[in-house]
Structures are given as structure tokens and as C-alpha cells.
Amino acid sequence: MQYNTQREQLVMPEYGRGVQTMVNMAVQIESREERQRCANTIVKIMSNLLPSTTSKEDDEHRLWNHLARIAHYKLDIDYPVNIVPQEEVQAHPAPLSYPMKSIKRRHYGYLVEQTLNYAKTVEDEEMRRFITESIANQMKQDLFIWNRDSMDNALVAGDIERYSDGKLHLDMSNFTFASVGESALQHAEGKKKKRKK
User: 120 and 58 in one domain?
Assistant: First the structure.
């Protein structure tokens, strides 16, 4: 008994071993005319195996390219469509470069660090206070995710002063942190509603 693991590996398993065997036989046919006729029949069988997903032209293009691929590009026939070259099919995409950024305070993340640097440059006092409070809420959320035991309001206020070189201050007497899981915007809207009442 011969197991599938001992047989030739299928190039495109979705078409099955029967199609693979037919293609292998078609490659060995000596008469070019007979090879062409056999290839046309195989493509019809392949179209019956896989349902149509796009237009007829696209399906035909896909099937002939699959036939060439299953035959390891050794099937010498007149293809009715342009066949994608083997090198292009087997080419690996270039690896994506990973943006390596130097983050001094990993538990707060890169965006908090960048926002702190931006907030230091804002001249409008009201806007700077709003940005600082938004950063404080985000920092508390980050501490909750990183280590719940270190989630302390005074720690966040101290970190803001320390990381901004003393240029940003969180007025703890007039500021309440958003509850964990609530965005800074939701917190600000909630404060506005309370003031209206």
C-alpha cells in the first residue's frame, strides 16, 4: 500500500492528485497537437473542480496559469493567455523594514513620549493644559495595562513633570483622572455635562 506521504507532493492540492497525474502525462506526450488537445481538456476539468469567482476571462487566465504551474512550466503548448513567468511566481517579496524607535519609557510607549515633546512646544496655556490632562489619562491607562500595582495618580503627575523637564505640570487639585477604560474625550464630555447640571 502506498501512502500519500510517499507520493509526489502536489503543486496545487485544491485540484487533487488526478489533475496532477493528467498534467504529468500531458507533459510526456510527444505530439504537440495531442498535447494541446490534452491541455484544453485538463483546463475544462479544472474549471469544473473549482467554482467561478470572477469573470470568464479572469477565470480562464487563472486556470491556464495554474496548469503551467502544476506542470512546473514544462508543458510546451500554445497558451491562449499570457502566462506569469516562473521567476515572478516564485519570487519572495522584499522583507518589510521594522520601524525601530528608541523609546525611553517603554511602559508609556512611543506616542505618549512624542505627545509630551509636542505639548512642551504649545504656547496656548489652555491648549497645553488640555493636552497634558489627556496625556495623563493615557499614561494612567498604560500603567493599568502594564502593572496595575503601580497605577498611582501621583506617580503619573510626577512622571509628566520629570519627562517634560519640568515644563508641564498636572494640577492635581483641579484635575480628576478618567476611570480606566474611559477615553480622555469621554471624560471631558462627562465633565461638561456635570457642569451644566
Answer: no
Q: How many Cβ atoms sit within 10 Å of the Cβ of residue 173?
A: 4
pLDDT digits (tens, 9 = 90+) for 54-103: 777 888 889 999 999 999 999 999 999 999 888 888 888 888 887 777 77
Domain span at residue 120 reads: 110-188
C-alpha separations of 128 from 106, 132, 178 in Å:
23, 6, 18
Q: Which residue among 36, 59, 90 closes a domain?
A: 90
pTM over 0.90: no
Report the candidate in 193, 190, 175 with the shortest Cα–Cα distance to residue 137. 175
